[in-house]
Design goal:
The chain has 5 helices and 29 strands. The protein is mainly beta. The longest helix has 22 residues.
Length: 459
Amino acid sequence: MKKRKRYTARTVLTLLALVTLAGCDQASKDSAPWVSLFDGKTLNGWTTKGGEAKYAITDGAIVGTTVYRTPNTFLTSNELYGDFILELEYLVDSTMNSGIQVRSNSIPNYHDGRVHGYQIEIDPSQRAWSAGIYDEARRGWLNPLTENKAAQGAFKQNAWNHYRIEAIGDTLKTWINGVPAAYLIDDATATGFIGLQVHSISEDQKEGTEIKWRKLRILTQDLEKYSTPSPLEPVVTKNRLTQHEAKDGWELLWDGNTTHGWRGAKLEHFPEKGWVIENGELIVLSSGGGEAEAGGDIVTEKKYDNFEVKLEFKITEGANSGIKYYVNTDLNKGEGSSIGLEFQILDDARHPDAKKGNHEGSRTLGSLYDLIQADTNKLVHPIGDWNTAHIISKNNHVEHWLNGVKVLEYERKSEAYRQLVSESKYVKWPKFGEADSGNILLQDHGDRVAFRNIKIKQL
């Protein structure tokens, strides 16, 4: 006969205490001030953007249905959210791909209003990256689930799945059916709408397939109290390559911590003054607005021919700076900046250079300095926010991109280009900008400007 297990008074009290604590914890979570994002009956508070997929309500759930010959479609919240905790359930057809947009936006001068921003992936394919983090219409995959087998196995095919998404400060964390999935530290976007995606489909996919969402609720108060710790190692994007970039051949041009790979444009070493490294930012200090009068410009130790270079910059009020390429540091050993083609960095609203230039508008932000004006419909983030510059030069075809949008292009060494040079301040430099290779330069123009995420891809 099996003996009964005896419990001491202390054991009973301990068990009662644990049960009480668990009950209190559950009660605390249940009493969280959740707000419903969907009333179960109407789509009040939501707007469709992007494509023409259909959204309807069936049995208390939002149902999205695929449609041929239309781009990705998003049912987006009218309200914008910054920091929040979001929970929801979804049921997806096994042949579909979808996602939940968070902190996303649709801006007229960003690819004609294309929806972009963080997407919490819905992926019923064998890849199984559901609850990974993708950057829709911008950078691609930020936190795939390549190494997270537990999260990959947590997805339930042809059944309702539960997501928990926490966006607090620069941190995004996700769970799928209670299993930690993604943990990202990235500060590209601080606020935006929430969106439910119906992905575009090809002609060989079935039109009319469905994805359903229900029980959408959000917390925006006392988030630290209700936030859940994640055991995962965070994926940090600042001064690091994303998985997509690494596969695509990108390299860090600055490591985020040291001066390795850089020197003064007119020095054999990095400047001893005028530049500092703080919190993963490479900063040229303010010195009164003079050109290369303090620490001076800095350049890469290596030279580049065909390349893509991209970086983020943050300016102060009235600031002037630039990114130069095909720089020849043997030219202009005297006063002023080193000579090369320049992606202009400027506070157009406050700096007088915006109204100068030998070609109208050619000294404004994103312009090819003194030669070609950037698109006046350019997307510019406010003073104190980060902007992204991207320069592409391949076989003498050059493009300037600002915040993900192309703002100008030209053919280096062409007759049209040479005509522009002949009408500019650079006419005194023979074959200006026509070197087959050169250094990349960050300019000291006497104003405080910060740089980070400096990356290059050699073509």
